Amino acid sequence: METNSIQATDTELTATIITPAELLEHWQGHRKLSRKVIEAFPEDQLYAFSIGGMRPFAQLAMEMIVLSAPGIRGIAFGDWTFGEPALDFETPPPATKEELLTLWDQVTDYINLLWPQIPLSRFHEVDKAYGMYEGSIYSLLLYTIDNEIHHRGQGYVYLRALGIEPPAFWDR
Amino acid sequence: METNSIQATDTELTATIITPAELLEHWQGHRKLSRKVIEAFPEDQLYAFSIGGMRPFAQLAMEMIVLSAPGIRGIAFGDWTFGEPALDFETPPPATKEELLTLWDQVTDYINLLWPQIPLSRFHEVDKAYGMYEGSIYSLLLYTIDNEIHHRGQGYVYLRALGIEPPAFWDR
């Protein structure tokens, strides 16, 4: 992946678990799979289908977006805002699947743009994410990825219940 | 966390995204939450309840176990076996919730035992996991964690559909 300006030397590569470029590829691979899950839903069911009182998948996808896009700006610069008007946890999903996918793609590009600007030392700094959740930057980043996997897994059950084959989990 | 013998210096701490000790804590935090999800199921539903033709949660939990326990041995030593007889992807879950939880706890202890023995250079080596899946060790490890989050998220839907409040996602 060519998006990262922080190049690890061979020595560092063998002395670290995962490099910034590898973690970006990992995150974007998950985002690519989540995009496929959004696409797999029939438009009406994306906004309406639910099991056990849980949120429809459009709302779960919007949570992924709101964690990721203000998230990457906060991770990079400590400013937990994104968009105009700024996205927050109260922002409803866009009204159509096409608009939701467009917003998804904007966030993908925004992550690729900001990622190389994160100083390596930043990952162990402590910040208050979205002005609310205090933690080290690496743990906030892992939380963002994990939360997406968690809710996407729920989307898989929705799709199966609708009789739709979800995309393969390992295909990113 | 005191389980890791590879101690990073202050300089290394600011020059790496995540240390081995932090990744172990992250993994075991997720395993702790997955254990709570197993516990939350009524015993009969753990083995029987399903949505859309998916596997019951006991089988999903068994997949987590089979990835983790041969997994950590393979990650540490390149030997992808665990137990006698050795666990593999065909091994059915133990017959009771109590036995499943006991096996879960054995795996937890086994991970803590083997983790400090992983050389830092091992994470970027390429191996054929379980004799089948080729990839770098760090990516196999992330796959193991992500796969657990994915299937546990599905367990949350099962619990909600059963009218049971799942444990909080952030509580590890």
SSE topology:
The structure is a homodimer of 172-residue chains.
Chain A: H1 10-13, H2 20-40, H3 43-48, H4 57-77, H5 97-114, E1 126-129, E2 133-136, H6 137-161
Tell me the number of helical segments of chain A per DSSP (H or I, 4 or more residues long): 6
Low-confidence stretches of chain A: 1-14
In terms of quaternary structure, the protein is homodimer
Biggest interface and residues each: A-B, 43 and 43 residues
Into how many domains do the coordinates of chain A divide? 1
Taking the sheet with the most strands of chain A, its summary is: 2 strands, antiparallel
Q: Write the CATH fold name of chain A.
A: Four Helix Bundle (Hemerythrin (Met), subunit A)
CATH superfamily of chain A: dinb family like domain
Give the termini distance of chain A in whole angstroms. 14 Å
Helix and strand succession of chain A? HHHHHEEH
Descriptive tags:
homodimer, about 170 residues, mainly alpha, Four Helix Bundle (Hemerythrin (Met), subunit A), two-stranded antiparallel sheet, globular, disordered N terminus
Structural account:
2 copies of one chain form a homodimer. Chain A is mainly alpha-helical and 172 residues long. Chain A has one domain (24-161): dinb family like domain (Four Helix Bundle (Hemerythrin (Met), subunit A), Up-down Bundle). Helices cover 55% and strands 5% of the residues of chain A. Chain A is built from 6 helices and 2 strands, in the order H-H-H-H-H-E-E-H. The first copy, chain A, has helices spanning 10-13, 20-40, 43-48, 57-77, 97-114, 137-161, and strands spanning 126-129, 133-136. Chain A has a two-stranded antiparallel ribbon. In chain A, strand 1 and strand 2 form a beta hairpin. In chain A, helix 4 packs antiparallel against helix 6 (137-161). Chain A is globular, with a radius of gyration of 17 Å. The two termini of chain A are 14 Å apart.
